[in-house]
Each structure stands twice: as structure tokens, then as C-alpha cells.
């Protein structure tokens, strides 16, 4: 073994490069603005954490690429997803630090940033692509594609990530490999639908027999149940479900949807604990992405009001519109639509319980 060279703290961390990386433009033009350093450091910290998120997502995708996923690796995925969500919470809290800068403080150096903008964060776009946000689902800003304002080398990195199979893709394939929920004469989904219909019929009967409601109120509530029945029926109708996928209303395949729903319904089964935590953690990450966007939208409005952003976008207005448009795992969030009380769940036969495992053969095509 070769002699190990003693490490020095600053050298190991590359502090000379990091701490010398802040170059306020206001100083360069001879009119230093105190809060510009805060603005730079905060955004540099964002980019460092983005690098860590990409590192974590890549590692999770590599595990999903395997032909089978052992339970210990599933635990590893959940832990790394949890780490990503913790980083996101930290990034959201950093917005509060930026809010210590007043709008007039920001205006002192804002014009020096043009045309630089947070929209030019290639790493953030890579994160979105690796998670599974598709180009066709993106909201254009200034009527341009999301990568239009990136430098050539950044655009290449972003498009490379866009061309690779995403975490969403591998999640969907993993869910589709869940053992199909039929065991001998037992058909879970047949029993589930029967119990759903019974539950809804009881609700409808309560409305019809409610003497405190007028006929108009009863009809209004009953019409709402038509929509509820449709939402339940749609997941059992492949043709109708595919129509919703083509319209962009649904993203995840019907088979993956049913598998994830089963996991949600029977999450208390020991074998389903990790898959349930995986699903809920992805929902958390999606929500935290939106919380971060919302925080930036409010920050933009606070700092520049209705002015055009430094990147040429309509600032707060654009960021607000991305909240719904840029969700990735909203199909998992919407699984709550199909949940029923535990007391209404079909009892699983022992044979089916034994078959539920997460060691699936899989070959990438």
C-alpha cells in the first residue's frame, strides 16, 4: 500500500475554488451592492445541491435497471429518495434567506444580471428530465422551448438527459412487473369493484333518504356520484384509459396504476411497506418540486411585481402556471381517488399473500 498523503481540510473540499467563485457584477462596474453576494451564494448553493440530487437520481435509476430488485436495494432506493426530499426542503427554506433582501436592494443590481436567469439552470432541467418531465408536457416561456436559452454545451447535457429513460419510465416498468392479482378462483379486482359498488350504493341511499336535503340538493349530490363512479370504472376499462393517456390526463400505464393502487390499499402488509414508502416518497418529491416553484413564484412577485424577468419571461405569471403543468408523478398522487375504507377491502387468500414478492425477472428492450 502506497504512503497515504495527509489531507488538509481546505484542499480536500477545494475551498480555494469555491470561496473564490463569487464575482459580484456590481463590484466589477465599480458600484458594489451589498446584497449581490447573498444572491450569488444562494444560487450557487442551489446548484451544488442540484448536483447531489442528480447523483442520487442516477443511482436510483441504475438500481431500477437491474433484472430484479432485492429488498435491500428497495430500501436503498427509499432512503435515497428520502435524501432528495430532505435536500428539497432545505432548498425551499433557502428562499427565506433571499427574502431578507428587499425589492429595492435587488433593483440595485438587477439590471446587471441581464439576460442571465434561473431558467438557464441546466442542472435543474436535467433533474426534471431524469425524473420524467417530457418536452411536450412543458410550458413554454416567451413562446420558446425550455432549452432555447441555454448555451450549446448546456443544451447538449440537457438533451442527453431528455433522451435517456427516466425514473418515471423505470418506476412504471417495475410496477407493471408486480405479480398479477389473481389466485385460483380469487380475482382481487372483481372483489374490489363489488365492494366499491356496495360502498357507493350505501352513500347514495343515505343521500336519497336524507330529509334535511331538498330535491335540488339531492340531485346535485347524486350527479357528483356519477363522476365518482366514472373515476372508479375508468381504471378497469383499457380502451377508455388509453384515451386519457393520449389526452395527457393520465401518464402511467393502466397496469402500473392498478399495481400501485393495490400497494396503497394493502400497505400494511409487511411485504408492501417499502413499495408503499417508495410511492409516497415520489409523491413528496413532486409536491416539493412544486413547493419550490411556488416559493420562487412568490419571490419573483415580491421582488419585481409584474415586471418581465431577467430571462425575458413574465416572472411570477410563468412560474405559477408551471405548478400544475410540470407535475410528474400526479397519477400516484391521484391514487387517493380510488382508496376505500379498510373495512371494505377484500380479504386476501393466504395463497395470494405468499405470491406477493418483489423479485421480478426483467430484460431491457
> Helix amount, in percent?
55-70%
Give start-end ranges of low-pLDDT stretches.
Answer: 358-362
Q: Helix and strand string, N-terminal first?
A: HHHHHHHHHEEHHHHHHHH
Assembly classification: single chain
What general form does the structure show? globular
Strand content: under 5%
Class by alpha and beta content: mainly alpha
Give the overall pLDDT as a whole number. 87
Could you give the distance between the termini?
43 Å
Instruction: Count up the helices.
Output: 17
Q: Output the strand order for the largest sheet.
A: 1-2
Radius of gyration: 25 Å
What is the total tally of β strands?
2
Largest sheet: 2 strands, antiparallel
Short description:
This protein is mainly α and 365 residues long. The protein has helices at 9-13, 15-19, 25-28, 36-64, 71-98, 103-110, 122-131, 152-163, 167-176, 188-208, 215-234, 238-247, 254-265, 273-304, 316-325, 330-333, 350-355; strands spanning 182-183, 186-187.
Explain what you see.
- The chain has 365 residues and is mainly α.
- The chain has 17 helices and 2 strands.
- It has a two-stranded antiparallel sheet.
- The two termini are 43 Å apart.
Characteristics:
globular, 365 residues, two-stranded antiparallel ribbon, 2 strands, mainly alpha
List the helices and strands and how they pair.
Layout: H1 9-13, H2 15-19, H3 25-28, H4 36-64, H5 71-98, H6 103-110, H7 122-131, H8 152-163, H9 167-176, E1 182-183, E2 186-187, H10 188-208, H11 215-234, H12 238-247, H13 254-265, H14 273-304, H15 316-325, H16 330-333, H17 350-355
Amino acid at each position: 500500500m502506497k504512503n497515504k498523503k495527509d489531507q488538509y481540510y481546505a484542499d480536500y473540499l477545494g475551498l480555494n475554488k469555491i470561496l473564490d467563485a463569487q464575482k459580484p457584477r456590481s463590484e466589477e462596474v465599480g458600484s458594489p451592492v451589498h446584497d449581490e453576494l447573498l444572491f450569488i451564494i444562494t444560487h450557487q448553493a442551489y446548484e451544488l445541491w442540484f448536483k447531489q440530487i442528480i447523483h442520487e437520481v442516477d443511482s436510483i435509476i441504475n438500481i431500477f435497471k437491474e433484472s430484479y430488485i432485492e429488498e435491500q436495494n428497495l430500501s436503498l432506493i427509499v432512503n435515497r429518495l428520502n435524501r432528495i426530499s430532505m435536500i428539497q426542503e432545505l432548498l425551499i427554506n433557502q428562499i427565506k434567506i433571499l427574502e431578507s433582501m428587499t425589492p429595492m436592494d435587488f433593483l440595485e443590481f438587477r439590471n446587471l444580471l441581464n439576460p442571465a436567469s434561473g431558467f438557464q439552470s441546466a442542472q435543474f432541467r436535467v433533474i426534471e428530465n431524469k425524473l420524467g418531465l417530457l418536452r411536450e408536457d412543458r410550458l413554454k416561456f416567451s413562446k420558446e422551448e425550455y432549452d432555447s436559452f441555454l448555451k450549446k454545451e448546456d443544451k447538449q447535457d440537457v438533451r442527453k438527459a431528455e433522451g435517456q429513460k427516466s425514473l418515471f419510465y423505470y418506476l412504471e416498468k417495475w410496477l407493471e412487473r408486480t405479480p398479477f392479482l389473481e389466485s385460483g378462483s380469487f380475482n382481487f379486482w372483481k372483489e374490489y369493484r363489488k365492494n366499491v359498488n356496495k360502498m357507493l350504493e350505501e352513500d347514495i341511499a343515505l343521500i336519497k333518504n336524507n330529509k334535511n336535503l331538498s330535491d335540488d340538493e339531492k340531485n346535485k349530490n347524486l350527479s357528483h356520484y356519477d363522476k365518482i363512479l366514472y373515476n372508479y370504472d375508468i381504471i378497469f376499462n383499457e380502451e377508455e384509459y388509453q384515451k386519457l393517456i393520449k389526452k395527457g390526463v393520465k401518464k402511467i400505464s393502466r397496469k402500473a396504476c392498478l399495481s400501485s393502487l393495490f400497494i396503497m390499499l394493502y400497505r400494511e402488509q409487511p411485504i408492501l411497506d417499502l413499495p408503499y414508502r417508495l410511492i409516497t416518497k415520489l409523491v413528496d418529491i413532486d409536491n416539493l418540486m412544486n413547493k419550490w416553484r411556488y416559493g420562487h413564484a412568490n419571490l419573483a412577485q415580491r421582488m419585481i411585481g409584474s415586471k418581465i424577468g431577467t430571462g425575458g419571461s413574465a416572472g411570477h405569471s410563468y412560474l405559477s402556471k408551471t405548478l400544475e403543468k410540470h407535475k410528474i408523478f400526479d397519477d400516484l398522487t391521484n391514487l387517493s381517488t380510488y382508496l376505500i375504507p379498510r373495512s371494505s377491502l377484500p380479504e386476501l387468500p393466504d395463497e395470494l399473500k405468499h405470491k406477493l414478492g418483489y423479485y421480478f425477472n426483467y430484460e431491457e428492450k
